[in-house]
Amino acid sequence: MNLQVLPSILLLVSAVHAFQYSELAQYVDNHQEDYVETLREWVAIESDSSNVQKRPELHRMMETVAQKLRLLGGTVELVNVGKQELPDGQTLELPKVVTAQFGSDPSKHTVCIYGHVDVQPAKLEDGWATDPYNLTEINGNLYGRGASDNKAPVLAWIHAVEAYQALSMDLPVNVKFVIEGMEETGSNGLDAMILAQRDTFFSDVDYIIISDCGWLSRQPALTYGTRGNCYFFAEVEGPKQDLHSGVYGGTVIEPMSDLIGILDTLISPSGKILIPGIREAVAPLSDEEWRLYQDIQFDLDDYKNKIGISQLMYNNKVDLLAHRWRWPTVSIHGIEGAFSDPGTKTVIPAKVTAKFSIRQVPDMDPAIVKKQVTDYLHSVFAKRKSPNKLKVTMVIGAKPWLAVIQHPLYEAGKAAVKRVFSVDPDLIREGGTIPIARTFQDVTAKSIIMLPIGGFDDGLHSQNEKMSRYNYIEGTKLFIAYLNEVSQIKTTSV
């Protein structure tokens, strides 16, 4: 062969196998009305996992997901994950977990995409401007419960696979799906299912992708960490029944006073956690991480305006982001047993229970935090010399998750964002908790990335939740591009 011709032949072969992004993106644009209509159908299913009366709707939601994946030719299973025990002792079937597989080429990487299709409760009278279960488009925003969290991202991944198929293009990687229906109430049964299928369904998975998160600003982002959560009940019990404050006030040591007293010792007015050992366990902020925060797009005034306050705990971007993402926080959520209805009931509650949480960060351990909090509150309570009884329990102990941003998964993410949005993504953490990330990490030992397409103002768990049409459609293109970028990761990469 003429060696001078070889470069031309190689160039031609390369062109034949080149990533046809423009054609795929055009397909997405041409079908965006179909995508919006499918999201409307999904939002109309009231898949509220917290309401047992809605359980038939949740089962219908899982069947709808399975059927959507079957129509694309995937190998689909509805995995039974057991029953849920209700407070009254009754049991209820948990919604099945949907798994699906597209492709099994051993020469290709295999990615597993996780998502959920259950939602938080929503009623029009809660303050919604539109029917929460009737997807409504206003000024380019698609309003509906679950639109952003997490139905549109799940659909965007499915549409990404569908686009390759519709254009008769091979998927650049093998794709698996794990879609659940109990994320909003603790992912009942999912941890056991992942452990049970570690050596089967997950055995050939190289990378796990989670898109149950959002951007920090209008800048696209890649998420590399989440905080964990330790949730506590602190119960103080005194008299055998509620008492009248006029008859008994001044003669008994009131449980509410004890409870408020010990809660006040958890955190200082400046936000410093006062429980010994908590802050000492936190991994220090490195110079590299400090510089990373400096480059993130984030406006303090916009943040204040969004949440309707005049002053924040910290007045510079780096400190605020660090305390939102990578320092622990104490939040007091409520007191059960206290009088909270309208009116002026003069009651001394016999038993009150405070509910508070501590967000976990590396290198905190929930088991150690449980002991630190329990021992500390009992020591503080003992100093009050109260005859009342204190009981401290930890009801949630979720660990934080942190990825290595130098991993090729993140380089692939940067390249995909650059292709679709023509900008470099922010590298961010989430202040909230997504326990499944840590479960996947601990059980499967696979590398994980969080690739969000939700907007910073989507109102997750709130009234008027929405997904913008722009993020939904461009997010689908991002997922298409990302699958291609992941296919180019060298197998020798760590």
Protein architecture, described:
The protein has 494 residues and is of the alpha+beta class. The protein is built from 15 helices and 20 strands. It has helices at residues 6-16, 21-30, 32-43, 55-71, 147-166, 190-196, 245-248, 255-263, 287-294, 300-307, 317-325, 366-383, 408-421, 435-444, 469-487, and strands at residues 75-79, 83-85, 91-93, 97-102, 110-116, 136-138, 141-143, 174-180, 207-210, 221-226, 228-237, 243-244, 330-336, 347-348, 351-360, 389-398, 401-402, 426-430, 447-450, 466-468. The strands form 6 sheets. It has a 6-stranded mixed β-sheet, with helices on both faces. Strand 2 (83-85) and strand 3 (91-93) form a beta hairpin. Helix 2 runs antiparallel to helix 15 (469-487) and helix 13 packs across helix 15 (469-487). The two termini are 39 Å apart. Mean pLDDT is 94; it is low at 1-16.
What coarse outline follows from CA principal-axis ratios? globular
Q: Which whole number gives the mean pLDDT?
A: 94
Structural class: alpha+beta
Helix content: 25-40%
The radius of gyration over CA amounts to 25 Å
**Based on DSSP secondary structure assignment, what is the total number of beta strands?**
20
Q: How far is the first residue's CA from the last residue's CA?
A: 39 Å
Q: Helix tally? A: 15
Largest sheet: 6 strands, mixed
Poorly predicted residue ranges: 1-16
Assess the beta-strand content as a share of residues: 15-25%
Strand order of the largest sheet: 1-4-8-5-9-19
